[in-house]
Amino acid sequence: EIVMTQSPATLSVSPGERATLSCRASQSVSSDLAWYQHKPGQAPRVLIYGASTRATGIPARFSGSGSGTEFTLTISSLQSEDFAVYYCQQYNNWPRTFGQGTKVEVK
Amino acid sequence: EVQLVESGGGLVQPGGSLTLSCAASGFIFSSHNMHWVRQAPGRGLEWLSFISPTGNVIHYADSVKGRFTISRDSAKSALYLQMDSLRAEDTAVYYCATPLNPTGDLCFYWGQGTLVTVSS
């Protein structure tokens, strides 16, 4: 199975600052990579798919990049509602696999 | 409005069985791929299983292969997860999910989850 490794595990950021999250795949997943946001007590939400396409209704401050094995999610200016856990997921191979998550917390 | 409502969670002893259900509405269930995903306490999301619209394509995570069985009933717009030989490490909130497009890959719409606790 493809192992997805996210870094860092925790990111401490002040509101208004930029956050950069990384995701690495153990083998190429082409651009079949999605980013999810997950808040406690809520269902996860798709932010980005195809490595760089924002899902409907997702603010422009969220952007994704990368292909192959290296991917990045950037939040350009963190808002209070963005503090959450973020997961990457590959959907290139079975089984589908998630990264272990990056928690974005208030600095 | 797309709605996915999981049920069937609860307390079960190690080695026991449980069947989860996911009631779907607001979309053409019979055309949609469906997934199960779980989150153990303090852990991340773990993809578990996939079933195609007709049920002819099924995939499992290695951690549940041979113990869990996914199925669906289009007449009832329902998705199921039969869980056998349960272990303490299967304790988690279980979510069903479906893509935005029927044959898509993403877990776009999610239910709110049902908690399964495996303990003696």
Summarize, please.
The complex is a heterodimer of chains A (107) and B (120). Chain A is mostly beta strands and 107 residues long. Chain A has strands spanning 4-7, 10-13, 19-25, 33-38, 45-49, 53-54, 62-67, 70-75, 85-90, 97-98, 102-106.
Description:
- The complex is a heterodimer of chains A (107) and B (120).
- Chain A is built from no helices and eleven strands.
- With 107 residues, chain A is mainly β.
- In chain A, strands 2, 4, 5, 6, 9, 10 and 11 form a seven-stranded mixed sheet that branches.
- In chain A, a hairpin with a 6-residue loop joins β9 and β10.
- In chain A, 35% of the residues are buried.
- With 120 residues, chain B is an all-beta fold.
- In chain B, strands 2, 4, 5, 6, 9, 10 and 11 form a seven-stranded mixed sheet that branches.
- Chain B is globular.
- Chain B starts with a strand and ends with a strand.
- The chains are: A mainly beta (107), B mainly beta (120).
- Chains A and B meet through β4, β9 and β10 of A and β5 of B.
Number of helices of chain A: 0
What coarse outline of chain B follows from CA principal-axis ratios? globular
The SSE string of chain B, one letter per element, is: EEEEEEEEEEE
Subunit organisation of the chains:
heterodimer
Q: What's the overall geometry of chain A?
A: globular
Q: By helix and strand content of chain A, what is the structural category? A: mainly beta
Main pleated sheet of chain B = 7 strands, mixed
Number of strands of chain B: 11
Fold topology:
The complex is a heterodimer of chains A (107) and B (120).
Chain A: E1 4-7, E2 10-13, E3 19-25, E4 33-38, E5 45-49, E6 53-54, E7 62-67, E8 70-75, E9 85-90, E10 97-98, E11 102-106
Parallel strand pairs in A: 2-11
Antiparallel strand pairs in A: 1-3, 3-8, 4-5, 4-9, 5-6, 7-8, 9-10, 9-11
Chain B: E1 3-7, E2 10-12, E3 18-25, E4 34-39, E5 45-51, E6 58-60, E7 68-73, E8 78-83, E9 92-98, E10 109-110, E11 114-118
Parallel strand pairs in B: 2-11
Antiparallel strand pairs in B: 1-3, 3-8, 4-5, 4-9, 5-6, 7-8, 9-10, 9-11
